[in-house]
């Protein structure tokens, strides 16, 4: 059998060992290589003897499909090749890579290792004409001994990479299929008498405050930790000493060195102990609440080639958004990422490079997890994971992989891990019985299922007594996730429910001219469309509203209104609030009128204090006190002043305003009705002009451009399919009467879709007052209406010159009923363009909620103003909902000559049905008899309020 289809591990490499640097010479072989792509192995000429002068150039590391060779392809579950394990297609793109290099003059003779940090999916390697071996396990390192083959000048390194290999059956993660040498290539001199491998075990006893350090390595290695006064401590001997522990909140690392006469290795030591006690996952004696994300490695230009800068950008963004944990879905990341997790403080679930999901649709028949021919490959992969990352204090759980069903090979992996590293529990979600894992893990469980687990109602005793985590939840695809608050409440209520990891960190969109591409954009015959666009970050790492919401949900300091004033609760797992400064600002109708500093005693982890409100000056309008907790001084990941928690307390409600006297009556002219500042079409009764500005509508409207969550992914009918089947996107407006007697214009209509017996009786009652119009809308469902509506409100259009929005209400960002924790009440402004959230796959977005009033104006301040009774939601965009629904990429949305405005009394929630539970009952918009009122005023330049 060819090495490509051999289900076993690679061959020829040295045993796996820890990733580390040392003072021994090393040479990066990253750079410009020669490259030739052949359509198959059979068609690929000998790469060793070849003349590469005619080959292309290719950067290494890279993935060749992102450099004009072949094309990316995206599938979630399905293998893009016949499931015929371990065979792969004969048409197996084969990329030959060649590099000529000289050694530095000072390069020592003797042993040297050639290290590849990642080759996707299988590489065969030659140096100076001699074959070194074969590597598989794309996101795992391999090292080959090359000392005897090196020469001072003109070394020729040849790496033949196959897109498909037997290993591809184990690498069916939900991501782009991309190939190449995508992580670093390094030559490492290995001095004789040097440090081949080490395991620096550093535990912490929270009952004594003592740390214990012990180095497992070869003989004659000594440890120095200058800041602890440790000098020349021999390997193998435990050493106990008082230390500050490591945690994600206090990532205290002690710099030290391991040395022999021949080599010095810098080490960074974090003291911490992971335990499972009382059915809870603890570190240093404290229960953890994992406020985590699943992180794939992604860059919109280079794919899974992720630089240290990009990894750092991720870590900083996570820390700044209060995220404290990462699952490295679904493979070990570039080693630099874990070093950064140690340094900045993140709990890590380090996951092995393993997924066989494509066997699922086949009933798991011949699934590698239970076939003996794959056992060695499974063990090889987990060994390489654990050996590489064993020195990272941030790693607190080993994960065997993802979506590979269950089987002996997984059980064998777990057994190996437990034997090799008894200090970290084993995670794997697919072991539903929890027969070989230490943590009960689920993905996308509903809040009620989590509640049952919290109540320990499980009949499986082993599983019932384990800590519970959601390794995936809150699918962040498109607009969403909705419903995060309910999960937080459960994690805080039940000690065994220890949080989870939002799916997922970043959209995997690939940058192409004009937009970000997703599945199908490269002509793939089988693909899963935009299911790869499901992150809290847009592909360019701009935070999405979902991340802003998640950050608010998980903020470590919570400030809430209580009858006595306000409550400050510390939700950190370890630290108190002494590092924070609390400030307040009082806003009257959205304008700051006073501010100050709040004196808050240090609140311990898990504790809270109630405080009276500071003394505040009187206000005349609706006023809110906003209290903010921010960092007193700069940290490694944020500057002083970075906000870690905030809350609002209502101080005074808007004074009751008597309804202004009506200014009738209605006049009829030819074809028009005139009422106050408004002109109406006499036949349809719709407003055509307000204060001389042309307007279209407002009319009842219940449609929104469906979100990924509305469209859902589970087998049953989605909300969107029910709405479409009901015809809610094409309602017709039958005018029953237009009654223009006296001071009121009353327009009675029935709004209903074609082909359906149901409808919504909608009555519009217009009255005029000094300077504007008041509209009352009464909606009465008639007949068998659908179970839910997308929204309930009005749609209208105003001149495109009204491109600036200002409002008093919820902001600054978008919000929906089950995703509105991150908005505060204030006064905000934005351009109409700036109100849009550029979801990679266009869909409903940009809704502003709890709005008291909003004005849309031109650059002179001329426009219209809408006032709620008391509040409404609105969107404003330069295209219709129909255009938004039809668009597949952001650059298909073209601005027209109008601004389309929706003014709503209700929106359906978002939920996370793109993968997981739909909208919870309390956030569903169920049609019922509804009345609401609004006022519309023209505004003249400069007097928008
Ligand atoms: C999970 C899987 C993830 C991802 C997610 C949906 O089942 O583990 O890799 O596919 O669903 O986006």
From TrEMBL:
Keywords: Glycosidase, Hydrolase. GO terms for biological process: lactose catabolic process. SMART domains: Bgal_small_N. Residues 672-937 form the Beta galactosidase small chain/ domain. GO terms for molecular function: beta-galactosidase activity; carbohydrate binding. Its EC number is 3.2.1.23. One of its GO terms (cellular component) is beta-galactosidase complex. It catalyses: Hydrolysis of terminal non-reducing beta-D-galactose residues in beta-D-galactosides. Belongs to the glycosyl hydrolase 2 family. PANTHER family: BETA-GALACTOSIDASE. This is Beta-galactosidase. It comes from Amycolatopsis camponoti.
